[in-house]
Amino acid sequence: MDAKLHTPEGVKDYLPYEAAFKTEIERNIETVFYRYGFLPVSSPTFEYMEVFDGNGGLSSKQMYKFIDRDSSMLVLRADMTPAIARIAATAYEKSDVPLRFYYFENVFRYNEHYQGKLREFTQAGIELIGVNSFDADAEVIAVSVNSLLSCGLKDFKICIGQAQFFYGVLEEGGFDKETCEKIRKYTVKKDYSAVQKIAEESDAPDNIKILFKELPLLIGDKKIVERARELVNSDKARGALDDLENVYQILSEYKIENFISFDLSIIGLYYYTGIIFRGYAKGTGFSVINGGRYDKLLQNYGVSSPAVGFAIKINNLLSALESQNIFVKGEKADTLLMYTKEGRATALNTSDELRSQGLNIENSLFGDDFEKNKEYAKKKGMGGILYFLNSEDVKIINLEKDTISDIKISDLLKGEV
Fold it and tell me: What are the tens digits of pLDDT across the range 213-222?
């Protein structure tokens, strides 16, 4: 293999159409973030390993590591949430809350068992720091829904769960620490048969054994919350279900309940402490959104503050949009600028003035060869050609109607076309 002609495994090029598509949906999402009052932040591409190691759900094996000249261990940005937690803890005072941040960044993760997952991919997300309330949880979920809607996506669900429900169930089951971790890992992998086997062979109460047997079915509308309530006695688990219902009530008031589903099997990363949610869309086998509440993470950076947020996996979102035949039209040149030598100076100045008025105009590099310019403009899907003959006269070629009109440049600038 000639390495200079290929990319490493897990990274990719974006050709113009795909890059434009990606940029356009990012613009749409950014508009939603901004309109909800969130402001942009950006973190370094690489940081000290301590920022990420032990402060999230990623192992050091998943990080791209290298040693600086001063022998410091550095890693490429592996997750945005710890990076923003560091920013919030070091750059702001407690009196500054609530903090509303949004970001668009590439993150880097090494997947030992490569299964079509990218190792460099784009995350877009928000973090709401300093408030622990059902309103804050619901707002963040509402922003996630409206972000997907802004891209034209319609066939999707945001599945919500609660971290404390799962921990409450484990406590009620009386499982030791090692068994709890096994159950957690199998549940994350959705290996429910292994979870059921552990529960059945344990001394857990019958209601907990039944719950783990029904765990794959605890996905859907409010009825599954009612069913879960019948199966648990722990105050922690019941309190988590109460919290879910309170958040759902607010989401109903946002009038987005049709996009919401309950999923009590969601566990999420280690730092999640309350509401957890995942966004799934037809056309991709992976989630397009991961989010939740992480009230204890900032303690690792010396500040105690509640927080909730989410990340959109832009690459997975692109796959879902393409699968559903949804293509956001990006900006492209719709007019070709052609000129003679005598008309060049006027053409260049006039076209800049037209661009300032919102037109997208591409300069021709084929001289005044009319047929060659016409063929090129049609190939690029342009609607027309402006052909400057001299300092006063211009021809407007409408490629869609196949017509040619003569007009004075002064009239062109007035919009009298």
Answer: 998 888 999 9
